[in-house]
Design a protein that fits this description.
The chain is of the alpha/beta class. It is built from eight helices and seven strands. Strands 3-2-1-4-5-7-6 form a seven-stranded mixed β-sheet. α1 crosses α8. The protein is globular and about 45 Å long. Bound molecules: S-adenosylmethionine. The site of S-adenosylmethionine has 23 residues, from α1, α3 and β2.
Length: 237
């Protein structure tokens, strides 16, 4: 694979809505949130910015995108410019966010936490949220414990350090101080969740990235009964 990763594939193919359920699920997840024009909102790990743009379009809130990958940043920047949206885009890591304490009313994080140092990032979410602020995350979750061989195959492909069960997520958010941690989502089968429908291809990309796309598909089929996702929502008191 020549050192190329799943994230290289996502960035060079410019996959928009790179999370289970796509933008449709994003819209549903936000339905009961009290976001207004006055709200300060962060899309953490925003990728090419599809959900970020929706947050602005829907609420006209003060919207920030945070993203670590320079290719993703460029594609998100182009999107916001084309749509004439005054969204602030910052390059940085969710593990150490370049924001002051108590900055945001709402944080959205779609398929980002699973790939980073989870306790660090969750602690950072807590720090940058205002008291009373809310977070919603859509994250990879296993339905049952896996054997070592299965776990290491998945962890190696996605370059992740751990695979969490629903209750592990709950405990991790509670350990960071979050209140009223709710986990929703039936036991969705990733293989059948809405596919990403948007691509913004880079002019040049390595042919090997098709191999990664293929491997990703195989992984979803092979582990369709165990590899899933949940929506985690909670508040900072
Ligand atoms: C699966 S994609 C999801 C992107 C976007 N949230 C979406 O739903 O389309 C994960 C994103 O997290 C970004 N990412 C990975 N590690 C990160 C970190 N430490 N800090 C910020 N973003 C990160 C990746 O570059 C990628 O754009």
């Amino acid at each position: 694979m020549g050192g190329l990763t799943y994230f290289d594939f996502l960035a060079k193919f410019g996959v928009g809505g790179a999370h289970p359920g796509g933008i449709g699920l994003t819209k549903n997840m936000l339905l009961n949130e009290n976001i207004t024009e006055q709200s300060f909102v962060l899309d953490a790990g925003c990728g090419t910015g599809q959900s970020t743009a929706y947050l602005y379009q829907q609420y006209k809130a003060n919207v920030w995108g945070l993203e670590i990958n320079p290719i993703m940043i460029e594609k998100a920047k182009d999107r916001f410019k084309n749509l004439k949206m005054p969204i602030q885009l910052t390059q940085g890591s969710v593990e150490s966010m370049p924001f002051e304490d108590n900055t945001f009313d709402f944080v959205l994080s779609e398929s980002v936490l699973a790939f980073v140092n989870k306790p660090n990032a969750i602690q950072e979410f807590y720090r940058v949220l205002k008291p009373g602020g809310r977070i919603i995350a859509n994250e990879m979750t296993i339905n049952q414990p896996l054997n070592d061989l299965e776990a290491s195959e998945i962890k190696q492909f996605y370059a992740i350090d751990s695979l969490l069960l629903e209750n592990d997520w709950k405990e991790m958010f509670e350990a960071a101080g979050f209140q009223n941690v709710q986990i929703t989502g039936q036991i969705y089968d990733l293989k059948h969740s809405a596919p990403a429908q948007e691509f913004n291809f880079s002019r040049n990309f390595e042919p090997e990235l098709f191999g990664i796309l293929n491997q990703h598909g195989n992984m979803l089929v092979k582990y369709h009964d165990v590899l899933s996702y949940r929506i985690i929502s909670c508040s900072k008191n």
